[in-house]
Amino acid sequence: MQTRRLLLKFSLIALAAAAALGCQTKPAVKVALAAEASTIQAESRGLAPNGDEHFSTISLAILFGKPEAVKSWTVEIASQKKGVRVFSGSGSDLPESLVWDGKDDSGAIAAEGSYTAALEVDYGKGLGLGASVSKAFILDITPPTGSFSPNPAQFGYALHGVKAPISVVVSAQPVLAAIASWTIGIFDSNGVQVKSLAGNWPATSKAAWDGKTDQGGTISGGEDYPALLTVRDEFGNEGKFQGAFSIAAMPGAQPSAIASRRGGFSPASSSVKNTLDLLTTYGSRESVVGWKVSVMSAKLGLVRSFSGTGTILPEYTSWDGKDEAGNLAADGSYFATLAVDYGGAFRAASVKSAGFSLVTNAPIGSVAVDPPNVALAELGPKKPVNFIIEAESPFSRIASWSLSVLDPSGAPLAQFRGAWPNNKVSWDGRTEGGASLIPGSSYKVVAAVQDEYGNVGKLEGTLVADSLPSPSEPSAITALSRGFAPTGDRSLVTIGFKLDVGDSSSVSAWRIDLAGSDGIVQKSMAGTGARIPSILTWDGKKEDGKLAPEGNYTARLNVAYGLAYAPALASSAAFVLDIAPPMVAINLSTELFSPGGEGGSPTVTISLEATSPLAKMAGWSISILDPVDISFASFKGEWGSRSVDWDGKGMSGDMVESASDYTIVARVRDEYGNVGELKRTLPIDILVIKTQDGYRIRLSSIVFKGFTADYKDVPPDRAARNLAILDLLATKLALFPDYEIKLQGYAVMINWDNKAEGDLEQQAILIPLSKERAEAIKAAMSDRGIKVARVSTDGLGAENPVVPNSDYQDRWKNRRVEFYIAK
Questions:
Q1: Is the pTM of this model over 0.90?
Q2: What domains can be seen in the chain, in order of their start residue?
Q3: Which of 194, 423, 446, 674 would you call most buried, defined as having the most Cβ atoms within 10 angstroms of its Cβ?
Q4: How does pLDDT run across 555-564, given as a tens digit for each residue?
Q5: pLDDT tens, 279-297?
C-alpha cells in the first residue's frame, strides 16, 4: 500500500514538471515501484549576470531519493517557452547542488524572464523514473530606469554656502526585479565628487541637500555641478542617469584699480628710481579675502607676482625689476594686473594697469671731438676744441650729462656738466690744476650720460695733442746683474741700475717703473729737474713695503722734457727677482745602509736634485746628523757634481751605530743666494762586523725605561721602534745557527768624575742593570726563535766605554748591548 502511494506521488511530480516546461507528458513512463522522493529547489529569487557579484549565478539544491539506486539524472532549466540549459550525470556522480550562470547550452546569456529547474531521475528497472520541479526564479538582465528633479531648480547664492536647501525627488521604474536602492553622486568642474545622496526604495525616494560637501566645504556660486543618479534593483543591476545642480552666480564687488607711480624705472640705477611702485585700489575692501599683483610682459607672460590676504591691503607694491627666479628682467614694456579674491562674498575681480618701462641698459652713443688733433701753440679761447655728445636710449629719455678730459694716467684735466638737449661744450685747453697738455699724447674725452631713470652710459672720444721733436741724445737704463734675491744669503739682496739720460739739461721730470712680465708696476722711483742719479738700487719691495712677487722684471725709464722735446722711454734687459728657494730632492742608492759589516752595501750614494723656475743651481752641502742630531759627517760642492758616496764613517773616523736613524740635511743654493733645504732619514742596518774569532754586533739604539730592563713601557713610537729592531736582530742572528752567542750589556756612568762614587755606582747599579737588560734581550731573542741554549749573557756596566762618559753629546753610545758570535 505504501509503495503505491509513492509511485503515484512521483508521477504527479513528473507531470507538474512537464507542465512547467510546456512539454507533453510521456505516456510511456512506467512506474514499477515508487522510489523515495527526489527534489530540486532554487536557493534565491533570481540571478543577474550583469549585476551584483552575489547574484551573478543561482544555486540549485538537489536531494536524491534512494540515491543508491540512481542510474542517471538530468536537470533541465527552462522558461515557459523552451529549455535553455541541461545538466546530467550518472549514479556515481550525484551533486548536492548545481550553479547556473544564466547562459544557455551554447554559452550565450539566456533571455531574461521566469525560469524553473526540472529534475528527472532514472532508477532503472524496477523503480522507473523520478521527477521534481523547482519554484520559478527570475533571470534579470535589463537595469531599472529612473530620473531625479531638484526643487527649486537652482540654489540661491549666499556669502557662505547657499540660502536654503534644495529637495530632490527620485523616480524609478523596475523591469523584472524590484528596485532596491538609489544614489546620486554630485561632482565639481574637475570631475571630483563633492557630495553623495542615497536612499532605499521605496521607503526613501526623496532627499535634501544644503549645499555642503562631504568634505565639510561649501559649493561655489555661479557654477553647475554635474550629477549622476544610479538606480539599483534587488539583483544588483544598475541604471545610471545624468543631471545637474545649478547655483546662482555671485554678485560683483565695487571697482578695483592698479596703476604705476611712474612711467618706468631702472633697477640698475643707484637713484631713487631703481624700484617702481604699483598703486592699488580695492573695491569692497572689507570683503577682500586675498589679493595678487602680477607683473606681466606681452612677450614673456608672467614675470613677477606678489600676494597677500585681506587682513593687509597695501596701498602699493614695489617691484625691484627681478623675476620669480631672482634674475633681473629684460629691458622693455610691462604692465601689471591686480586680482582680488572676495571668498564667497563677491565675484573675483581682475584689473590691468597702463604700460610702463623697465630700463637697465644705459644710453649709447659717442663723443665727437672737433678738431680731433690740436696744436698746443694754437689752442686757446680764440680757437677752442668742441665736444659734441651724441646719445640715445630705446625706452627712456636722456636727462643730463657730464664730460671729463682725462690725461694718459686717467686723471681729469677738465670737467663740464649740462642738461639735455644742450649737448655741446667748448674747451680752451686750460686745466683745473694749471697743467699743460703733453705734446704727442692722446687724451680720452669721457661723457657720462644719464637717462630719466638714472641709468648712466659712458661715451668716449679722443683728443690728440701734436707731437714734439724727439730728444737729440738717447737715454738708456741698464740692470747691473742678471737678478737678485732679497731673501737669500745676502750676496745679491738688491739690484742696481745705471741711468744714461740724453739732453739731461732739458729734463723736467723722470720716473723709473719696475714692472713684472705681466706689465704690472710694482715699484716706481721718480724725481724732477736735471739732477738725475747715475745709479739707483731696488730692494725688491713694492710701494707698500712688502716684497714684490718673484718673476722676470723690466726697468722702464721715462724722461719728460716739458715742451723742449717729446718724452723719452728706455727699458732695461729683463732681470730676475727670485724669492722662493730651490725645491730639493734627496735620492739614496739604498733604503737600508749597512756599512762596514758582513753583507749589505759598503757605501751609500747620496745624490741631490733641485729645481727653480727662475734660477740656476750654484752649490750644495750635505750634513749627516747622528740620532741625537749632532753633526756626524758633511760634504759640499759645486752644482756640476752633486752626489757623494759615503762609507758610513764620521768626521772623527767612527762608524755609524747599528739600527739607528741618521738624518741627511741637504742644502742647495741657487745663483742668486736662495737656499733650499730638505731632510731625509737614512736608516742604518744592524751591522755584523767580522772579527778575528767570529763576528760582533753592537746596538745602542734599543731604549729602555729608566733604570729598568723594560723596553716596552716607553713612548709608543720608541716601543714600536724597539720591537722592529729586535725583529731585525733575530733575523741577523738566525744567519749563524751553529754559532755560540755571547751577549754583553753596558751602561753609562753618571759619576765618572768621582772614582769612589763611580765604583759604587758600577757595582751597585750599572752591572746588575746591564746584566738584567742583557737577559731581557736574550728573552726577546728566544721569543723570536733563537735557541737560548747557545746564548750566554753578562753585565759589564760602564766598562769598555765607546766614548768617554764625559762626552755628553755622544755617551748615549755607551748604553748598548754587544753580541759576540763564535763557534
A1: no
A2: 2-139 (2.60.40.2550), 145-247 (2.60.40.2550), 257-358 (2.60.40.10), 364-465 (2.60.40.10), 476-570 (2.60.40.4070), 583-683 (2.60.40.2550), 688-822 (3.30.1330.60)
A3: 674
A4: 999 999 876 7
A5: 999 999 999 999 999 999 9
